[in-house]
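Appendix B, Record 12. Input sequence as logged:
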Amino acid sequence: MTTLERTLTKALMEIVIGLDDSDDNVIAPEAIMPLLEPAIALLDGLSDDDKRTLVQIIIDCADEEPDAGRQLTAWEMPEILGLIA
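Logged structural output:
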């Protein structure tokens, strides 16, 4: 894994966790998926090998997350982002 791959994955993780943890008065729950849909569409264009690599980077980064709530959301990211069924 390159520094670039890890950094971009962690940046995406921060966005997903931030949206998930946001107060319902700040970002309505039904607005979260439409915000993520452009990223999900881009990720859908990755090859299966690249998707597997990204999932592994996400898992590696999630394993390092010290906050249990954030870690749970990070572990759910591959499914949220449509990388796994």
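The two ends are 24 Å apart (CA to CA).
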